[in-house]
Write a structure and sequence with these properties.
With 321 residues, this protein is an alpha+beta fold. Helix content is 28%, strand content 26%. It contains nine helices and 15 strands. The strands form five sheets. The protein has a six-stranded mixed sheet with strand order 11-8-3-4-5-12, with helices on both faces. A hairpin with a 4-residue loop joins strand 13 and strand 14. The longest helix has 22 residues. It is globular and about 50 Å long.
Length: 321
C-alpha cells in the first residue's frame, strides 16, 4: 500500500494528536499482534471471561493515534528516551457493520511495563512506567510506533490494533490551517488558553491556537491531564468531520507533503476514503477508568483492571453461549 494517503487520517486524531486507517472490510492490511500477554485466556479470536467464552467481533477496525511532544522530524533515529513522549493516546474503533464510531482515551500517565530498546532495536530491559514513555524509549520512527502499539495492545487485553497514526506538535497547527481550521462551542471557560474562549462561545480555531487548545494544561494543578483530554476529544471530532466533508482526494493532496516529517503511519491511501463514510457527531467516548496518584515526582494513573477489562469484553467481543 502507498502510505501517503493515510496521512490524512492521522490529522484527524492529532491532538494530537493526535493522530487514519487499517484493515477494514477487506480493504485494510491487518497488522496483527504476534504474542498473547501473560495470563490472558485468549486463543485466536476466542477468549474466556468470567467463565464464559467470547469471540472477537471481526467487524471492528482499531486505529491507534498518538500525539508526540516534539517538533523534530518523526522519521529519524533517536537514542532511547529521546524520541518524544506520547502526550495524546487514543484508540479509534470503527464498526463496519453498524456504522458506529467510538474512541478509547488512554491516560498518558497510566502505569504499565515499558520496554527499553538498545541501538540494535532489541529490548534491553523492561521497567514499570507511564505509558507515555514507551514511544520515547524506542529508537524513533516506525520502531517507536511499533513499540508503542505493542505495549498499548497489551494494555487493551490483546485486542488487535490494526494500524497507527502519529503526529508531532508542529503538525497540529499546520494540518489545522491546511483544512481551514475548526469551529468549537466552548463547554466551559477556556480564556486561559485564548481570550475568545468564553463558556458557550463558538470559536473558529486557527494557527497556534490549535496547538494551545489541545496541549495546554496547568502543571500546578493535580490531574490537569483530564481537562486536556476533554479538549482533545472536542477538537478531534470537529477536525474529523471537517476532513470528512472535504472528500478523500482533496484530503490526500493536502496532507501528503507532510508524511514522514510531521506524520507517521503504516496505513494506505484508500483507508481515508473508507473512514469518510462514518459520521463522528455521535462518537462514543470512553476514558480508561482508574485513579490518579500524586507521587513525590510524578503523577501516576492506575487503571481499574476489572472495570476496563469488562468494557473491552462487552464492546469488542460477542458471547458464544
Amino acid at each position: 500500500m502507498n502510505r501517503k494517503g493515510i496521512i490524512a487520517i492521522l490529522v484527524v486524531l492529532i491532538l494530537v494528536l493526535g493522530g487514519v486507517i487499517a484493515y477494514f472490510s477487506g480493504v485494510f492490511s491487518k497488522d496483527t499482534v504476534e504474542s498473547v500477554p501473560e495470563g490472558s485466556q485468549s486463543v485466536g479470536n476466542v477468549i474466556e471471561y468470567d467463565g464464559k467464552k467470547y469471540a472477537y467481533n471481526t467487524h471492528l477496525t482499531n486505529i491507534l493515534f498518538l500525539g508526540i511532544d516534539t517538533n523534530d522530524t518523526l522519521d529519524k533515529f533517536s537514542k532511547p528516551a529521546h524520541a518524544g513522549q506520547s502526550d495524546a493516546i487514543y484508540l479509534l474503533t470503527l464498526n463496519n457493520e453498524t456504522g458506529e464510531v467510538s474512541i478509547i482515551q488512554i491516560n498518558r500517565n497510566a502505569m504499565t511495563d515499558i520496554d527499553i530498546y538498545d541501538k540494535s532495536g532489541q529490548v534491553s530491559e523492561t521497567i514499570p512506567g507511564q505509558v507515555t514513555l514507551q514511544y520515547a524509549y524506542g529508537n524513533g520512527g516506525t520502531q517507536s510506533c511499533w513499540a508503542a502499539k505493542q505495549t498499548i495492545c497489551e494494555m487493551l487485553y490483546d485486542i488487535p490494533v490494526d494500524g497507527y497514526l502519529v503526529m508531532n506538535m508542529e503538525g497540529i497547527s499546520t494540518i489545522n490551517d491546511e483544512f481551514g481550521g475548526v469551529t468549537i462551542t466552548m463547554p466551559r471557560d477556556y480564556t486561559v488558553i485564548d481570550p475568545s474562549m468564553t463558556e458557550g462561545a463558538q470559536v473558529h480555531i486557527m494557527g497556534d491556537v490549535a496547538e494551545r487548545f489541545v496541549r495546554y494544561r496547568d502543571l500546578t494543578q493535580f490531574n490537569s491531564v483530564a481537562d486536556r483530554m476533554d479538549r482533545q476529544v472536542l477538537y478531534i471530532t470537529a477536525l474529523m468531520d471537517t476532513m470528512r466533508n472535504r472528500g478523500g482526494n482533496e484530503v490526500y493532496n493536502t496532507i501528503s507533503p507532510y508524511l514522514n516529517d510531521l506524520i507517521l503511519t503504516n496505513l494506505g491511501p484508500e483507508d481515508f476514503n473508507t473512514m469518510a463514510q462514518f459520521s463522528y457527531d455521535n462518537c462514543r467516548i470512553y476514558q480508561t477508568p482508574g485513579k490518579m496518584v500524586d507521587t513525590e515526582n510524578f503523577e501516576e494513573f492506575y487503571i481499574n483492571d476489572e472495570e476496563f477489562h469488562k468494557y473491552i469484553v462487552e464492546n469488542y467481543y460477542m458471547s458464544m453461549s
